[in-house]
Amino acid sequence: MSVGRTVKNRTREIKGRISEALGRVTRNRRLERKGKAERVSGSPRQAGEKARHAFGR
């Protein structure tokens, strides 16, 4: 698993959490949805990287 990809996926997940929380605080539903989508997209990417590494690709 590449360190760069790991950092990129983790950053995406953290950025999504921040956006989601900011949207909740400001009652901006669009920002909250965008943050949630970004947060959720980081996790499967990270899982895919782990699986790819496990199978030696």
A few lines on this structure:
The chain has helices at residues 3-26, 29-54. With 57 residues, it is mostly helical.
Structural features, described:
Helices cover 88% and strands 0% of the residues. With 57 residues, it is mainly alpha-helical. Helix 1 runs antiparallel to helix 2. The longest helix has 26 residues, at 29-54. The termini are close together.
Search tags:
mainly alpha; 57 residues
- List SSEs in N-to-C order: HH
Distance between the termini: 9 Å
**Total DSSP E strands:** 0
Helix content: over 70%
**Structural category:** mainly alpha
Low-confidence stretches: none
Number of helices: 2
Largest sheet: none
Rg, rounded, reads 13 Å
Element layout with pairings:
Layout: H1 3-26, H2 29-54
